[in-house]
Amino acid sequence: MHNETVFIVDDDASVRDALSLLLSLNGYATSTFSCAEDFLGAIKPDWCGCVVADIRMPGLSGLELQKRLKASRPGLPVIVITAHGDVNAAREAFLSDAVDFIEKPFDGDQLVAAVKKALERVSGQVSRISGDSEAVRRLSAREHEVMGLMVRGLHNRRIAQELGISPRTVEVHKARVLAKLGVRNVIDLVRLVDHKTV
Description:
5 strands; elongated
């Protein structure tokens, strides 16, 4: 079993059920939503995993959802699925860092591979930056732990619970991590980590 959750956002109930079953059979926990607004209204700071979003939905489209997540939750990578794919939509998705752009109907193995790649991106962010010896030298062991949870999108209270320290201590460690790595905020930190994946 995997610790992360695959969040499926699609207005077609049969598609949601089929994707949830497919991913569950491959060991992934899933959570389904019928529209982008429901997902954005439910999202919690400690959610970790990836998003599978349809392009065409009532209200916000999958591409609009992807842009909002890129700005607010860069640690939740997005896989875009669509029955109405075109080059412009694919380009827009990849410019917003989509893990993959998959046209329906698609092979189940293709989606499972994309989910695996997305979750490797999440779990690999910290390990990749850890490979930078200069960054490792700058951070203490505790700061390194805090950074890993920051990149996953966890907020101070949840980081404090995970590490058994106070939220105030987390705030101090976060400030030191940002200062030592020369970034202004968590989003810049994620960009730094992503840059080191190239």
